[in-house]
User: What shape does this take?
Amino acid sequence: MTALLEVEDLRVAYGKIEAVKGISFKVEAGEVVTLIGTNGAGKTTTLRTLSGLLRPVGGQIRFNGRSLKKVPAHQVVALGLAHSPEGRHIFPRMTIEDNLRLGAFLRSDRPGIEKDIQRAYDLFPILGERSKQAAGTLSGGEQQMLAMGRALMSQPKLLMLDEPSMGLSPIMMQKIMATIAELKAQGTTILLVEQNAQAALSLADHGHVMEVGTVVLSGTGQELLHDESVRKAYLGED
Amino acid sequence: MTTQTTAPETPSAPVAGRTSGALGMPAPVARALATGGGVLSVVSTFLAWTWTSEFPGDLTVYGYPGGLQVLVLIAGALTALFGLSSYGVKGLTGLTPAGGDGALRFASLAAFGTAWYTVIAISSTLGGVVNLEPGGYLAAAASLIAVLGAHTLPFERPEPDPLDPDESAWEHIKHRLAHGWQTVKASYAGGTPRPVGALPSYAEILIIVAILALGLTVFTYGIGTSYDELFIGFLITAGFGFAALNKAGLVAQASQITARHQNITMVGAFVAAALFPFTQTDDQYATVGVYILIFATVALGLNIVVGLAGLLDLGYVAFLGVGAYAAALVSGSPSSPFDVHFPFWAAVLVGAAASLVFGVLIGAPTLRLRGDYLAIVTLGFGEIFRITANNLDGTSGPDLTNGSNGIASIPNLDILGFDFGAQHDVGGFTIGRFANYFFLMLIITAVVVLVFRRSGDSRIGRAWVAIREDETAAHAMGINGFRVKLIAFAVGASLAGLAGTVQAHVTYTVTPEQYLFAGPIPPNSAFLLAAVVLGGMGTISGPLIGASLLFLIPNKLQFLGDYQLLAFGVALILLMRFRPEGLIPNRRRQLEFHEEAEAPAVLTKAGA
Assistant: This one.
């Protein structure tokens, strides 16, 4: 069986500077895979390339058996790959409900959309309470919830989350991580980019450690969590 | 919000946070002065203001107000009513659901501004204050008293921000100025109006009818002002008067009611507009009416492109031109190289289709650009259109547009035997040529309003707004940015083309010089954009009102002459500084420009 997402020797450059220098990894259906690493390791660049916002200079991306190399951003969503971008990128002046509806932009099954909006409200009750409020009035953590809920509205086969815990309070971060765990339990396939290695690794099936554009270490979440070099570099232990 | 109703005991230096007026006059005295001043202003309008009828409007008559006096009468009555309402007079408190003092201040300014403008205009036109009769002095004094009274009413002063005493002297000055400005703003602040309880729907509809009737009256009056002084007086009264109604909370309540019956309001507004030609005795102002409608309709079309999709188009007038030329070419005009005479419905289709094609042709290569670049390219396209139309005269290019002479003698429309060039008598009213076109144009406007509403609320409308707000996120939602932008561009272009087909017949002649980037006569690209921005981006009524104002002001104030564009520039800068969301704000836009609005910086004073 082939994996849902296969990335092979992916290279991405900004002008002459290569940000991703040939990385390979796989995501199987139903798995949570995480990319961890410091700033500038190329994690966000990888996600942006997968969702078509950037063009690779080399390598292969196969999603659901199809090459994504030449697919424009707006069609990637139609194929079942949803991206919750870094910095959340919600539409601040629209209501929460309108944000969610935009997430379902490519769908036309009204009852299904209504059901999924309800599902997002069940997952994040705060969104339901404030459905008619402008999204910009939400707190950072609530906006992150909205960004995730919105990405789910396209019924993705693979959900890509870019730094969902960035800039959040510890309590809010725990909530977000608990939600990711819940989504995993529901069977959602997730590709998670995180700086918070501890949290990401403890719920991931597989993890890849990135450093300046290359994958330096791969393994299951538990293996990496207990790997000595990872503990030293990312978990703040001597 | 704290409510303090007592005036300070000692009228010494006003202390921050306490309620106190400008001169430290006790509140009851101030209120009495304001109300009394309003009443006296009303009385003064029944007296003679000057001895000679040389000043336009004949202000020499006792017992019957005329011209500018009528405006002072209205403003004075408004002041008196708000004054009485702020006393809590039974039956009048409903006039000021958001507290009366802010409204009273603006109403008194309306009376003061109009009265003093009149008195000064009389003195300068006739050469000196000796030309004033007692009525004029009374009006000046009464309105001055009203304005002083209203402005010494106590209000909640804002707390000055703490400032480090070690700061430089310049910082101190800046700080003091900022605080002064805050105080001025606070003195005009109004409260939040109480929401209107649900009335029986017939009552709400009656209210809507009354609002529309008021709107029609104000508009008809403005169009009908026959001399400069009256129009300026009208602007002063209407401007401050509207501000007063706004501060009183009446505007908010009115919009709540109209929002509950959107469709009725929309239909009612069109009925009111259709009544306009019946209020006129000759075709003179119907001409103005039809030009305003053309201008406003095109502005509304531009609002789809600019207001909804956020694409800055500086050459939009070219699409109006394409539509007009297309209709002119198939109209059977002798200067058209095509010897055809299409029926109007076919000409409309040709015009809209031609503009659509041009919209797509221009949009396809340029919409990949963002922001400023798109603006530059569209600006260039607008000029290319004009210059091309100038050159397709048979000598510098193929003979198509008859060059700078344009396509002349475009015949009047004849739809189902109804001759648009002739006068018709309808139920005792004479409907002239321009009134005929006014009705036709109104239908086109209705079509544009319908397209705007339907598309704005639809899936494509949400996509436009999403693209405008955050293009990256919109792509991540699966929105094809290029395609939805091209749709916006094409829809906007064909709506302008639609208006162009009527314009060609109204003006008889289509020449390249009608479609400039900027010029003294609207519609041109700069004025169209100004109408949208001034009126309110993303709204329907905004561009309609903005276009009316932008058409009427240069039309009425001919004496501005060469300074017109300068005056507009200044007015636009001021508006952008103080009301960037436009006269009619879009709910979403208001959030964008006043993000601090959630936590008001200044407290407002509640009325006694």
Chain A has a mean pLDDT of 89. Residues 81 and 158 of chain A are 5 Å apart (CA to CA).
